[in-house]
Structures are given as structure tokens and as C-alpha cells.
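Whiteboard transcription, Tuesday session. T.W. wrote the C-alpha cells on the left side:
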């Protein structure tokens, strides 16, 4: 169980590294965006569940920017960290970088914001610990995340205003 008094951003940070295979790609050798999104969702889940100390479900993908193509044979690094925590929801920022296995330089290829919701055994939303902010950068990202969460609530079908 997570600390009910709060957890730091660093405590829940997660990284997944994956080699892209031919089964991940289209006929031109570029990795499908969906394959990238699948891994983004997984690493966001790890980060949110570490923080919440319970199972989490994906509520939304806010914004996904594909910055460059990923090719078969590249190693892709998915790094996730919390930016905002509400009562039961958490915003996870995922940065994606790719590099050739041999002699490659790491290149930014995608960035995404994923909202995860902590759930109990009956799959009902449950409270999560607060987020302990340790730096000016973390405080800035938290406020930016709060603004994005409020915008999502205003535009969600049937959502609160």
C-alpha cells in the first residue's frame, strides 16, 4: 500500500525499454503508432499503480505528439512520471526516445499525457496519496497538470463544469 501521507514523483517514476520488432511495424518498416501507445499505456499504469498502491485504469490519453518515426530494430525508452494527482486520478507524462542498437544517439520520438484512475477491488475509484513536490520543475508541472485536468473535466461528455 502506498503512503497515505504522500509520495514523491521520483518514487513512482518508471522506465520501460523495448526493442522494436517486425511485428510492430507497417510494410515500410516504421513502427505503428498503436504499438508505441500500447507501451505508453503500460508504463503509465506502472507509474500510477506505484503511486496509488492499487490497481489503476486508463481514463484518457490527453495529447500524444509523434515527433519522429520509430524503425524496426531500434531500442525505445519509455519514461513516465506523475505530473498531477487529484482525489483518485493521476496525470502521467510519458517521454519516448529511440536509438539504434549499435552506435545510435537517443532521439525524442513521442510525448503523451495519460490520465489513470486508481480503483478498489470492485473497480470503483479510490483515493490516492498526495504528490510530494520536491523541485520548482515538479511544482510547475503540477500546476500545468491541474490546468489540463480542469480542461478535461469541462470538455468531457457529461462532465462537470
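and on the right, the sequence the group agreed on:
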Amino acid at each position: 500500500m502506498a503512503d497515505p501521507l504522500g509520495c514523491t514523483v521520483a518514487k513512482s517514476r518508471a522506465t520501460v525499454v523495448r526493442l522494436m520488432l517486425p511485428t510492430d511495424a507497417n510494410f515500410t518498416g516504421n513502427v505503428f503508432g498503436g504499438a508505441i501507445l500500447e507501451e505508453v499505456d503500460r508504463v503509465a499504469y506502472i507509474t500510477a499503480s506505484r503511486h496509488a498502491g492499487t490497481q489503476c485504469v486508463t481514463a484518457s490519453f490527453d495529447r500524444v505528439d509523434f515527433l519522429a518515426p520509430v524503425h524496426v530494430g531500434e531500442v525505445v525508452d519509455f519514461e513516465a512520471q506523475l505530473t498531477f494527482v487529484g482525489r483518485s486520478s493521476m496525470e502521467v507524462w510519458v517521454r519516448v526516445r529511440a536509438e539504434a542498437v549499435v552506435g545510435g544517439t537517443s532521439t525524442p520520438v513521442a510525448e503523451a499525457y495519460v490520465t489513470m484512475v486508481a480503483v478498489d477491488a470492485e473497480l470503483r475509484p479510490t483515493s490516492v496519496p498526495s504528490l510530494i513536490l520536491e523541485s520548482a520543475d515538479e511544482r510547475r508541472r503540477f500546476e500545468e497538470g491541474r490546468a489540463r485536468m480542469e480542461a478535461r473535466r469541462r470538455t468531457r461528455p457529461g462532465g462537470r463544469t
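Someone added at the bottom: Residues 83 and 138 are 7 Å apart (CA to CA).
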